[in-house]
Amino acid sequence: MNDKVVASPLARKLAQEKNIPLSQVPGSGDGGRIVKRDIENFIPGGVVNARESFTEVGLNSMRKVIGQRLSESKFSAPHFYLTLDIDMDNAIAARKSILEGKGTKVSFNDMVVKATAKALKKHPGVNCSFLGDRVRYNDHVNIGVAMAVENGLLVPVVRFADQLTLQEISSQVKDYSIKAKENKLTPDDWAGSTFTVSNLGMFGIEQFTSIINAPDGAIMAVGGIKQVPVVKNNEIVPGNVMKVTLSCDHRAIDGAIGAAFLQTFKLILENPVLMYEL
After folding, report:
1. Which residues are catalytic?
2. CATH number of this structure's domain 2-46, picked from the four choices 3.40.50.300, 3.55.40.20, 4.10.320.10, 3.40.50.720
3. Is the per-residue pLDDT at 91 higher than 50?
4. Which of 272, 277, 276 has its CA nearest to residue 97?
């Protein structure tokens, strides 16, 4: 059988010395030819000389709380999801203009929070909290901004976000980010949200869905900005598009209400001047 296998003379010699059937040796040479290294690396029976290994880490208190709260939300709140594409060309231009100035260096996420606050003020049906036997419609707009921290996730709250300028929102989010990295966020920082924004766009994620941060009635998942072909003035041109997905608790929010909120949010981001006018 060995004579029917394509192998180098040296490989044949080594195989004979080691009593290795050439028919069982995969060749790595040209055309599957068996060469010296194939014989030297051959493991009889295809058994890999390795052992499975793992490390088990017990859940810390933060992970336990996250698991408990999100499990309760996912399995008790009937989630539904609404996804929308947003043309970010004007937002990109507006941010560039701001960065060229001498003010606070705002991020796209800051613009998302600002637009969200404006849209929530116009759609109080989304700015709500589900409280078991009743729904609370909040006049104030407190937006939780999800932030990854070591071993977990925290959601510090930008309070009265609808009354803050874009620069004030940016400054507050930056302060929270620094405190999160230094493990200095306190329970007061993450209490009292009426809506939550979760942004994974900076990691290259295009679209995802989030679990509602109870008792909030909704949470918005924000993807990254991606350049794609779009139609403008009956022509196909490069465009910058961002996908957002709104997760709603159907006990408190109906589809049409969530959709109307997203339409306003889209309008504001596509026309950034509205951040200051609405």
Report:
1. 250
2. 4.10.320.10
3. yes
4. 272
Predicted confidence band of residue 1 (pLDDT cuts 50, 70, 90): very low
Tens of pLDDT along 7-46?
Answer: 899 989 998 888 888 888 888 888 888 999 998 888 776 5
As a whole number, the mean pLDDT across the chain is: 92
The fold of the 70-277 domain, in CATH, is Chloramphenicol Acetyltransferase (3.30.559)
What's the predicted TM-score (pTM) here? 0.80
pLDDT at position 74 over 70: yes
